[in-house]
Each structure stands twice: as C-alpha cells, then as structure tokens.
Write a structure and sequence with these properties.
- With about 210 residues, the protein is mostly beta strands.
- The chain has strands at about 1-5, 10-15, 20-30, 35-40, 45-55, 55-65, 70-75, 85-90, 95-100, 105-110, 115-125, 130-135, 140-145, 150-160, 165-170, 175-185, 190-195, 200-205.
- A four-stranded antiparallel β-sheet has the order 3-4-5-6, with no helix packed on it.
- A hairpin with a 4-residue loop joins strand 16 (about 175-185) and strand 17.
Length: about 210
C-alpha cells in the first residue's frame, strides 16, 4: 500500500504497508488535522485493514478478519474523526459496515440478500449516520442503504438492465443522496439522485464505453 502527498513543491511517496499483498481497493480520508486515514484490502489474508498517520508514523490495524472480507472498501470519518468503513464480505457475499467506537471495531451486516456489496461507496450525513451505495451482483441492480438510527433501510435505485457497478456516493446539504455509477447494459455513465419523493436517473455520457 502506497501513499503520496503534495508538499507544495513536489510529490512525496511513501510505503504504508508491505506485509503480504496489501493495498487493494483503497479509500482515503483526511481528518480535522489533515492527517491521512486509509482503508484497504489485505489480499494475502483476506482481511479488512485500516491505516492512519500519527506523529509516530503510520499505525496499522486489522478491522475485520472473519472470513475473506475487506474488498471494495469505502472510508469516511465522522465529526470526532472516527473511521467508518463499508466493504464486501467475499465469503458470505454480503455488504458489511465497520465503525470504530473509540475502544473497538463494531461490525454489522447491512445487506445479505443475494450476492451484494461490491463497489461500495460510503458517506456520513450531518448526524454522522452512514449511507452506502453498492452493487447487487445477483440482480445486476444499483442499491442504496442508510442507517435510520435504529435499523438499516435498503432499496433498489436502478434495475433497468445491468446497473450499479463502480458506484460513488455523495450527500447534499439536505442529506439527500446522489450516486454516479456504470450502466453495464449500454456502457454508459449514469447519475441518480433522490428528489425527496423518488429516485431520478439520468444518462450523463453515452459516447462509446464510458463510466
């Protein structure tokens, strides 16, 4: 796993983790002090890994090691700079979510209906509640999940063909989700947003194989 940053005059690369074949599907976030945090997959051990930078250098942790877990990671930091990670459970074909409570990693299964949870993208709303976009491999659909404060709510966003791989999620000022993703049927770049009453989807680019 490598990390590089711009010093103001040049790029400064460094190695973060070199124990085995590590660094797959990384996701980067900066905390309130602009220090980097990275979630990633340890391919050798099939683990979800997490790295963060301190005055003592890079600190490495295994967030989840139960089965073959940790691919398709997406990382966000909450208002207390605590990490939240969405990722794929390759053993059970589920969407998983991990968060650091301050003392331990708390792990939950978000969706386990079919082969779900690849191409995850995580965002936290104004109340630090997680929202996740992801791909349903079984039905070839774009999916969306959110934590209400009590339960996970999951829904299908787009099912008009092979939709939903390579997702990227962002929340607007009203905490409404916006998702970019790939249309595998027509090879197009797509965009979906929640209007407050329904999902509206648009084709952004359809020139050749894009998205």
């Amino acid at each position: 796993l490598k990390y590089t940053h711009w010093t103001g005059t040049a790029w400064e690369p460094e190695t973060v983790d070199w124990e085995g074949d590590v660094g797959w599907t990384p996701s980067l976030a900066l905390d309130s002090a602009d220090r980097p945090h990275v979630s990633y997959w340890d391919y050798t051990n099939g683990d979800l890994k997490y790295a963060y930078y301190t005055d003592a250098g890079w600190q490495l942790e295994t967030a989840d090691s139960v089965g073959n877990v940790g691919s398709f990671t997406s990382l966000a930091l909450d208002s207390a700079d605590r990490p939240h990670i969405s990722y794929y459970d390759g053993t059970n074909k589920d969407l998983l979510y991990a968060r650091w409570t301050g003392t331990a990693w708390h792990i939950e299964t978000v969706d386990s209906v079919g082969d779900v949870g690849s191409f995850t993208s995580l965002a936290l709303d104004s109340a630090d509640r997680p929202h996740i976009s992801y791909y349903d491999e079984t039905n070839s659909d774009l999916m969306y999940a959110r934590w209400t404060g009590a339960v996970w709510k999951t829904e299908t966003v787009d099912s008009a063909g092979n939709m939903g791989s390579y997702t990227s999620l962002a929340l607007d000022g009203a905490d409404r989700p916006h998702i970019s993703y790939y249309n595998g049927t027509n090879s197009d770049l797509m965009y979906a947003r929640w209007t407050g009453a329904a999902w509206k989807t648009d084709t952004v680019d359809s020139e050749e194989d894009v998205g």
